[in-house]
């Protein structure tokens, strides 16, 4: 109860500051009413949806859009708050200085505390317009703004037969969030256009329930089956952990149905196991573990997954959560040349200038959160995700299809 009261007080303070900036610039008497009506409507709808959240159903389009509307309302106000609050700190410092000089040094200040400056309100609202526009774009177009990212990785010990071998990685489909078949089909076409040797999916095919994938089976079945097949692993959302179930049997039945989805769309699901990709008498090991996350379900068993794999084998590991690489994989006695992960979505929010700058709040939680990382001659690629979850959009961190080419030998400078 105390926590709820604290949250309410914080929201009220933020709204008061945002309203003050709004009122400073717009003098029409009816506009404050519009401001308050819209704010109350958004917060009321958000509260209603989440107070009536049904864990037996899980995330729905209603909860997605409730979160989207809340962020559209709250984030710009939060920006205004920081600007206006910063001005208030300056006003208090100036007021304190005026008071001291007036009372102790015979100053002539008639007014200790300066008035709010209108231009600061303009600046605050101008800055707030940027996240507002970005969030709107992210919900309207960003969530389906697919990008194909290509990398070339060099390995001295790559079997010669696999020089030039290409793989396509997708991750975090979250089919229960989709609402535009045309956009998904466009993404499938992008995958097929890459014409790579193998396709790898690194988990989270649904949000919670197997039935979410039912309308999309035929669509994802359209992904071409390349020479070395289509392989997959599970993610944390594939275990039904984020819903209430009438019985353990019902939860297990859903889990079995989710595993069966992979077969329906012609993917070979690796459950703490491995398979070998063979070419011209040489091979590489493809290892797939179940979800292992520092803060999420730990079903992955790396030692079990590499049974029958030798130390000399070139290894590609599929593991949904990149924290697995950080806490187990890179320090393992066996050398994993390339690990493919997803999970973070890059928080679906951030700023990226390729080759120069990359930032998202998720980087304060995950050391490896988007893109390619290299340590001790071991690589990990963290795919930014194919779908979206919680917030129905993407801002700056776009849905990703990764293409990686393997080359034998040292990288040419």
Structure in words:
With 413 residues, the protein is α/β, with parallel strands linked by helices. It has two domains: 2-140, no CATH class; 146-408, Purple Acid Phosphatase, chain A, domain 2. It has helices at residues 2-25, 30-51, 61-104, 118-140, 181-193, 217-221, 248-264, 302-305, 323-329; strands spanning 147-155, 165-170, 198-202, 230-233, 268-269, 273-279, 282-288, 314-318, 338-341, 351-353, 357-359, 371-375, 378-382, 400-408. Helix 2 packs across helix 3 (61-104).
List the helices and strands and how they pair.
Layout: H1 2-25, H2 30-51, H3 61-104, H4 118-140, E1 147-155, E2 165-170, H5 181-193, E3 198-202, H6 217-221, E4 230-233, H7 248-264, E5 268-269, E6 273-279, E7 282-288, H8 302-305, E8 314-318, H9 323-329, E9 338-341, E10 351-353, E11 357-359, E12 371-375, E13 378-382, E14 400-408
Parallel strand pairs: 1-14, 2-3, 3-4, 4-5, 7-8, 8-9, 9-13
Antiparallel strand pairs: 2-14, 6-7, 10-11, 12-13
Helix pairs in contact: 1-3, 1-4, 2-3, 3-4
Summarize the structure.
The protein has 413 residues and is α/β, with parallel strands linked by helices.
Which features does this protein show?
single chain; 413 residues; alpha/beta; Purple Acid Phosphatase, chain A, domain 2; six-stranded mixed beta sheet; 9 helices
